[in-house]
Design goal:
By secondary structure, the chain is α+β, with helices and mostly antiparallel strands. The chain has one domain: GIY-YIG endonuclease (3-Layer(aba) Sandwich), CATH 3.40.1440.10. It is 30% helix and 17% strand. It has 5 helices and 4 strands. It has a 4-stranded antiparallel sheet, sandwiched between helices. Strand 2 and strand 3 form a beta hairpin. The chain is globular. The protein starts with 5 loop residues before the first strand and ends in a 13-residue tail after the last helix.
């Protein structure tokens, strides 16, 4: 798959237990740069279908979604109680995921809702799907 194209998780050549050092990842904040695979995820959190949407990026989606659900970090999702993971996609590299997130943050709400409905028409919490 080309740079910027969503991919499945985990990538076929990826062992999440093996650290892959990268100079570009070392400069990123801890919630974005974590050891393991080079794949990164873009995701959307909400509290309910007509509620607030939050778009984020991380190298460890399962951990990051857990942090949002349990309100372990101060910030937007804790303040607005956004604990439901309703959409995500994986990318081959962190730079592609970061660019996708930056683009999506400028999208109208209707575009994000369309993405969510295509993957998750019931707006169910997809957190448990990550570990199955």
């Amino acid at each position: 798959m080309g740079e910027g194209q969503p991919t499945s998780w985990p990538p076929p050549d990826c062992d999440p237990g093996v650290s892959r050092p990268s100079t570009s990842l070392r400069r990123l904040p801890p919630d974005v740069a974590s050891p393991g695979c080079a794949a990164a995820g873009v995701y959307i959190m909400t509290n309910h279908p007509s509620g607030t949407l939050y778009t984020g990026v991380t190298a460890d989606l399962s951990r990051r979604a857990y942090e949002h659900r349990e309100r372990l970090r101060e910030g937007f999702t804790k303040r607005y109680r956004l604990a439901r993971l309703v959409w995500y996609e994986f990318h081959d590299g962190i730079s592609a995921a970061i660019q996708r997130e930056k683009n999506m943050k400028h999208w109208p709400r209707a575009w994000k809702v369309r993405l969510i409905l295509a993957m998750n028409p019931e707006w169910r919490d997809m957190y448990l799907d990550l570990n199955n």
